[in-house]
Amino acid sequence: MAKSMTAKEMKKDSPHLNRFYYPLDQAVEKPFNWKQMWRLLVYLKPYAKTLMPAAIVAMLVSTIVRLIVPVIIGTWVIDRAIGDQNVSLLTYLIIGISVLYLLSYAANTYRIKWVNILGQRVIHDLRKSLFSHVQRLSHNFFDKRSAGSILVRILNDVNSLQELFTNGIINLLMDVVMLSGIIVILFVLSPPLALAVLFILPIMFFISTKLRRKIRRSWQDVRIQKSRLNSHLNESMQGIRITQSFSQEKENTEFFNGVNTDNYEKERIAMKKSAYFGPFVEMSNAIGTVILISYGAHLIITGNIEIGVFVSFAFYLGMFWEPISRLGQIYNQLLVAMASSERIFEFLDEQPNVEEKKNAKAFRDMKGHIVFDKVQFSYDEDRVALHEISLEMKQGQTVALVGHTGSGKSTIANLISRFYDPTNGTVKIDGHDLRDMRLDSLRTNISVVLQDTFIFSGTIMENIRFGRPEATDEEVKEAAKVVGADDFIKRLSNGYHTEVEERGNILSAGERQLLSFARALLADPRILILDEATASIDTETEVKIQKALRKLLEGRTAIMIAHRLSTIREADNIIVLEHGRILEQGSHDELMKKKGEYYDLVKSQFDMLDAL
Ligand SMILES: Nc1ncnc2c1ncn2[C@@H]1O[C@H](COP(=O)(O)OP(=O)(O)OP(=O)(O)O)[C@@H](O)[C@H]1O
After folding, report:
1. Are residues 111 and 46 in the same domain?
2. What does the pLDDT read at residue 15?
3. Which of 4, 51, 206, 395 could serve as 118's disulfide partner, Cβ 3.0–4.6 Å?
4. Number of domains observed in the structure of the chain
5. CB of 452 closer than 6 A to ligand 1?
6. What are the residue boundaries of the ABC transporter domain, all occurrences included (predicted)?
7. Does residue 153 share a domain with residue 120?
8. Which of 316, 349, 382 is the last residue of a domain?
9. Which atom of ligand 1 is closest in space to residue 143's alpha carbon?
10. ipTM score here?
């Protein structure tokens, strides 16, 4: 039964969750689904002729040895060799049994090895296909999900399938063979004793399944609690600076202690329930043994069975519980795997919204002449982000997009890079509808410099080279020089080889911006999209950035989402947007003369500056 908790339930469930709750928490129980199971098993296909059969043969060898040894001991060693006091037969039997055990030992070693390799490979393949698929998905997929939830699927959900693929499937086969083997042998040896001993089987199976279900639910609670603990820990570490600056450490610690205690409580309950299982197994064994002794002894005394059969029964009874208990475990594993695989397949079934046509053409020598022809666009059904926008950006022009927040500036930029397709109308570059063109040939001609520059972990050199992986060290340095980033890079401890952590925490906002300019310049795009930083930067850096910008813009079509008056003023064309519509456009002087919306915007910036 699928079960997800509401916030209210979670708060009730966890007394310490007064301030936060984490809606990602979900119980992981899904009904068994054959179709999905079959889809999962397809991942074993590449190994269907190598590792799979090898592991199955090894498993069969060790299981068959375990199955026949008790019969040999009962009917041959006890009834024949010892009964007839036949020493040479006894010697042969001892040697034979030893050889069989050695064979089983070798088969087991290989089974474990092959099964583990098989599991690891399947998980490796699954993670690879999931990652490459997710990387191909369009922006609208990432709009709907947090980075954290995507990470959980690629890491945790795939991990939770590992156990199924390493041991689960082969163990399942092994246990079925073992269990059916034991039942058949017991009935062949003595049908009445087999009936008496196996009579308790369905009862035990029923009770143990119930018990296991309870235990499983408790461990699910533990997992949910752990995920809350992780979420809180993650949030605390990410926000540590804000916590410290607002002196909220005490409150935060109290909250953490609360979640930690809840976690402990859930673990304690789960442990307690799990502790019932071992003694239950022992007790069931004991009941079986009592039945065996009382009824078995009666059968021996009345001459219906020999002592050897009795001994074989005792052996099998000891072996019986292991596969039964493991089958329950595998069933649990399957349920967990169902939940995880459902989430994984949900991602794999997601198709990119922006698709490339089969016969898509490549841009050759793009000039960078952009035309929007009656473009309408909505991110979601109920809100229109752009209404019938028609505009032209000529080759080499710098076009500034201005307007209030939410007016559609970034949306226009997103459509030029074809991160989304227009709902109506067409976006053309050099006269080609973008939907007819190859995505890679479009995007290699466009560089996007965002406000929040993303710095990857690696060296400064590698970060700049991201724009053109084949660039030489000299070309990287040249690009940095042109945009004026060279000065600060040289002052870093290791110059161009300084390691910057993910997101570039060791660099200032201005430095990060210069770095992203160098990256864009190195890529040498025909079209440059620049989301200008709103963060205030000191005048010296501002001047540097302006100079760098001029270099960067030379000979390219540039679309600037502009906030600084200095940038806007220099643009060839200024497009003023409001609520997804173009209000007016023209050069700075033309628009100032018009005394429209742009004039008001500029005036308000000046008024603000005066007020400062
Ligand atoms: N990924 C998205 N999903 C849904 N709606 C979105 C998405 N991105 C933007 N919007 C909406 O589309 C409209 C236009 O947003 P856009 O980001 O283009 O504005 P903007 O002018 O660039 O704003 P800002 O100056 O704040 O960056 C807004 O109403 C916004 O809420």
Report:
1. yes
2. 46
3. 51
4. 3
5. no
6. 370-604
7. yes
8. 349
9. 1
10. 0.94
pLDDT for 612 beyond 60: no
397-405: average pLDDT = 90
The answer to whether residues 170 and 278 belong to one domain is: yes
Counting ligand 1 atoms within 8 A of each CB, the residue from 410, 414, 576 with the most, and so the one to mutate, is 410
Residue 251, ligand 1, Cβ within 6 A:
no
Would 1 be classed as within a structural domain?
Answer: no
The CA distance from 436 to 362, in Å, is 9
CATH of the domain at 505: 3.40.50.300
Domain with 493 in it: 452-524
SS (H, E, C) 393-450: ECCCCEEEEEECCCCCHHHHHHHHCCCCCCCEEEEEECCEEHHHECHHHHHCCEEEEC
Q: What is the CATH number of the domain that holds 327?
A: 1.20.1560.10
Question: Could you read off the pLDDT of 123-153 as tens digits, one per residue?
Answer: 999 999 999 999 889 888 888 777 777 787 7
- CB neighbours (10 Å) of residue 542? 14
Are residues 457 and 345 part of one domain?
A: no
Ligand 1 and 405: CB distance under 6 A:
yes
Q: Report residue 454 as tokens.
A: 């993303």
Q: Which residue minimizes the CA distance to atom 17 of ligand 1?
A: 410
Which residue, 427, 445, 444, 446, is CA-closest to 436? Answer: 427
